[in-house]
Amino acid sequence: MTTALITHEDCFDHVTPPGHPEQVARLDAVLNALEGMDLQRVKAPLVAADDLLRAHPKAHIDAITAAAPEAGWRSLDADTHMSPGTLTAAYRAAGAVVRAVDMVLGGEVSNAFAAVRPPGHHAERQTAMGFCFFGSVVVGAKHALDHFGLDRVAIVDFDVHHGNGTQDLVEDDPRILFCSTHQSPLYPGTGAAHEVGVDNVLNVPLPEGTGSKSFRDVYDRIILPRLDAFSPQMIIISAGFDAHEADPLAGMNLTTEDFAWVTARLCDLADQHCQGRLVSSLEGGYDLTALGASAAAHVHVLEERGR
User: Fold this and answer.
1) Could you confirm whether 300 is annotated as catalytic?
2) pLDDT tens digits, one per residue of 205-220
3) Catalytic one of 14, 60, 121, 122
4) pTM of the entire structure?
């Protein structure tokens, strides 16, 4: 068994305006950092319509499709822009997570990492925002539940920004436990501890300047025990690396080693409850050097566990 790396060259065709932090170079940085690793490389398919409809209504999908420009950019808000290649890239990003779920639950690989863009965790049920268009990890989680008949899937999000879209998409579904650590106050302004869904959302907002010791303590005391009690049959990670001390969009002080540590702890829990079944998908991370190093540290742990 091994680790799957799922990506597609179409993800380079989502081109944002000059100076935008969610840039094509991010995917280059990640893929270059993963060169030489013993991974099963797989091309991401386009997401199937029925999978996308598990997370978003047809009206939202139609609106994003209609907004796709033939040239230049179309801005859906001040942060979220579409180029001619964006729609296909977004379909590949969601399709990558579904393919990862299929490969892991089908026993083809031990775990999988989707190196894709645009990211997805800010996309709400009917609103594209925060660089995101479709809730890719939720699409994958609901595919695991409905297609494979699982009863419990956990989504863990350690991106520095709260995954408001993920929360919006799962907060009424008790089959999914959503756990998030994120800087607060910070965009998008959601993720307070009192936001609990149907007792299936665990938000742990962290202050600016939070470093390794506090971050690891929160996982050991709060996040991991809640995951353990939920006893998930699969874990899906929203792997954002923008809590790194070098990241320009936030103010947390994590190191590359912290991402390796939290990945190992989540793998331990997956081994305990899920037969190691774990899928991860790229979210944020905007300092290219830190992003590449952190993604490599994350995937290196997956690779070691996948052998």
Assistant:
1) no
2) 999 999 999 999 999 9
3) 122
4) 0.98
